[in-house]
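Reviewer 2 asked us to include a model.

Predict the structure of this chain.
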Amino acid sequence: MALGANYRKLFAASTISNLGDGVGVLAYPWLASAVTRNPILIALVAVAQRLPWLVFTLPAGVITDRYDRRRIMIGANASRAVLTLAVAGAVLWQGGGLPGPNELDDVTSTEPLLYICVLIATLFLGVAEVLYDNSAQTIMPAIVEPSDLEKANGRLWAAEATANNFAGPPLASALLVVGFALPFVLDAGTFAISAALIFAIKATPRVTEAAARRPWREELAEGFQWLWRHPVLRSLAITLGLANLLGNVSGAVFVLFAQEVLSTNTTEFAILGAGGAIGAILGGWSASAVTTRIGAGATLWVCIVCGVVTSVVIGATSSWLLVFVMFAAFSFTVVLWNVLTVSLRQTIIPDGLLGRVNSVYRFFGWGMIPIGALIGGLVVAVTDGAASRETALRMPWFVAAGGLALLLVYAAPRLTSRAIDEARAEAAARSVPTDETPGETSDLPVEPEQGTASLQ
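Predicted model (structure tokens):
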């Protein structure tokens, strides 16, 4: 991998921390389902995890542009290590009060103290994730050449998907059999190792001088205005937000769907995640070739169409093996989307605005995730009162499919290959040094609930 020593360190740090995230992908929803069977309460855990993307993303963008991005990443992962250890401690404190991982049908009431602990921990873990992810995307241009961005991002996502979906969940399944606290102890260790590897990166990203800093509101407004005046990024941000909202309508209570409709145990639940990993690995390694062959616009359309098809199939089936295949197909297109759009943003957004514009973009994109999760829980709760429990757990998938079909009507005429190519050409022309406004020079985004992969 001829992308440099700093990239290898970032690659290793992200892979290791995503192994822990993969353990958490299974461990957190399984823990929540051991504490309560209420679909709204389970959805609220997903809401708490993603709520910081709605309320903290914009300030995080200013922080990313003002301070050393490497140090922000170190602090974020160190904080996540401490918080995850606290969750492990709470689980140990609960002791024998929790059922075994395959005895969840015996749960008849909510354990309020442990539930509140999990809810608070996931909220603050989400805050740290916002800081880490925004910094990680903006640090990449300081590590690799602009021409290598799609390659670097694709390889990174393939490795992250392998750790997050292929290796992590089966490991969590094995650890849960031994003890409910073990997955969280391992998760904390991976965050700590990741922070140490990032500390070893020698790149020094751009940091705004203190004397040049302006009021936060003014800096945020500049990032928002830059994005909103850019037709391609504006359309991408709106499409991303609606797609992630719809994806999490079905994903927020997926753990209940998997347990009660697909009848999966912890091992089968982990295998479902491996399906997503296989698709993501293939997508990461082939994203650049696919985009080159069919065009950027067609790539984005295919991603949305695949979301419609896979949502309908998953909502209609009771076979977890078929869901496995659908996860692989959907994850393949999610990584295509992410590699294309993240590399595009890293290319066309000026370095002095990269953190803020990225944060505004992800405010639209990821800020909708907790709203979608809450809607998903409400859809199940309301339908459960009018129809069978199984129908209620299937309904979010059909809601998501219908919404994505309508979204394609909005996105197709706006996200074309021609528009994207013109945006790249404009950015390349702007990269030529001029005497224009400072900060206008050019230089170089899950984990979501099991069963969903979020676009970036």
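The CA atoms of residues 292 and 350 lie 24 Å apart. The first helix runs from residue 5 to 35. We have added this to the supplementary material.
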